[in-house]
Amino acid sequence: MTERTTGTPNRLLSVAGLTWGLSFICAVLLYAIVRLSSVTIDALNNFPFDWYHWVTLAVVVVFMAHSEGYEGFQRNFSPRVVARAWFLYHNPRPVLIALAPLFLAGYIHIHSGRRRNILLLTIGIVVLIILIGYLPQPWRGIVDAGVVVGLTWGLVSLAFYGIRVLGSRPFAYSPEVPGESEVNS
Questions:
Q1: What predicted TM-score, i.e. pTM, was given to this entire model?
Q2: Which one of 88, 98, 141, 181 counts the least CB within 10 Å of its CB?
Q3: Nearest of 157, 173, 143, 162 to residue 70 by alpha carbon
Q4: 9, 165, 180: which is closest to 103 by C-alpha?
Q5: Is the pLDDT of residue 130 over 90?
Q6: Domain limits of the chain?
Q7: How far apart are CA 143 and CA 158, in angstroms?
Q8: CA 48, 52, 53, 55 torsion-angle sign
Q9: What is the mean pLDDT of residues 69-75?
Q10: Range of weakest confidence among 22-31, 33-42, 88-97, 131-140
């Protein structure tokens, strides 16, 4: 067998893991964006907004763009997901390929301190989702508008970093995998 044919199964496994993990994460973000957008549109179309509603909407959107979009996604989640996808591509392990969405999101095979933070953040997000579900309109639509902006920012930043890695541009983010300090080139 030639070197090219012996490397084909690993390459297929690598591409499958990368595609499976990133597609799943992007699909979850896109689903949330579409679902929450309908709640926001309902609030804007079916409830009269007074000046304080508009001010609150502006504050929530700006706050969520910065905290969720920029700080949460662009500076933390998206580069870490892409670094872990790059790691997975270069180190295809069947278990990690099968669990690629969980691996990329940082729920498995990550430093214990980071995993604890990710789990606490996830629990906090679930609690907030439940609590926000009890808000009456238009307040729920106002909060969801901010979340839509943050999630959209996250999806765009994930695409940006993904394209950057595929374009072989330098990507110096750590995948935070135990035993690995930097992304494999």
A1: 0.87
A2: 181
A3: 157
A4: 180
A5: yes
A6: 9-166
A7: 23
A8: positive
A9: 96
A10: 88-97
Pick left, alpha or beta for residue 179 (phi over 0 → left; psi -120 to 50 → alpha; otherwise beta).
left
Confidence of residue 180 (pLDDT cuts 50, 70, 90): low
When pLDDT is averaged across residues 98-111 and rounded to a whole number, the result is: 95
Q: How far is CA 181 from the centre of its chain?
A: 22
Rounded mean pLDDT, 128-149: 97
Is the pLDDT assigned to residue 104 strictly greater than 50? yes
Asked whether 161 and 79 are in contact (CB, 8 A), the reply is yes
Instruction: Determine phi and psi for 63, rounding to 5 degrees.
Output: -60, -45
Torsion angle, alpha carbons of 38, 39, 44, 47, to 10: 130
DSSP letter for each residue of the chain: --HHHHHHHHHHHHHHHHHHHHHHHHHHHHHHHHHHHHHHHHHHHHS---HHHHHHHHHHHHHHIIIIIIIIIIIIIHHHHHHHHHHHHHS--HHHHHTHHHHHHTSSSS-HHHHHHHHHHHHHHHHHHHHHTTSPTTHHHHHHHHHHHHHHHHHHHHHHHHHHHHTT---------TT--S---
State the amino acid at position 184 in one-letter form: N
Two structure tokens written together for 170: 């330098």
